[in-house]
Fold this sequence. Notes:
There is one protein chain. It contains six helices and five strands, in the order αβαβαααβββα. A five-stranded mixed beta sheet has the order 2-1-3-4-5. The protein has helices at residues 2-15, 29-35, 53-58, 63-69, 74-88, 139-158, and strands at residues 19-23, 44-49, 92-98, 114-121, 126-133. Helix content is 43%, strand content 21%. The chain has one domain: CinA-like (Maf protein, Alpha-Beta Complex), CATH 3.90.950. The longest helix has 20 residues, at 139-158. It is α/β, with parallel strands linked by helices. The model has no long low-confidence stretch (mean pLDDT 93).
Amino acid sequence: xxxxxxxxxxxxxxxxxxxxxxxxxxxxxxxxxxxxxxxxxxxxxxxxxxxxxxxxxxxxxxxxxxxxxxxxxxxxxxxxxxxxxxxxxxxxxxxxxxxxxxxxxxxxxxxxxxxxxxxxxxxxxxxxxxxxxxxxxxxxxxxxxxxxxxxxxxxxxxx
Length: 159
């Protein structure tokens, strides 16, 4: 995964573009991965870990989106990606929400292993979305898998 994240950071630097993240179930893992690369501060300025709905809303996710589609949805991931891009004036915003094999007693019922990822491209007003199954044994393995797949998408967008 190190090679992928280095490529993403270097491509963003070359293109003079920026990225920000709003993560829920991955707990800032993407932000941590990006900032492990020397020079990342040129392209990565901010991240928010928004485990609670109230903080997603405070960061700009419309309450109506969560109420209509639930916090575990592609629509909420897209709203997170756009909100963080807008908040930071970044070229790209990444939103990640979902559930990793743990029932949320306060949340909506549904699949306990589905994660929703969205990348918002501000310049083209375009979303790239992905639904991933968090079906690996540990939370750490699931986070690494999800971040690896998001990095794949970022590389495809930046090519």
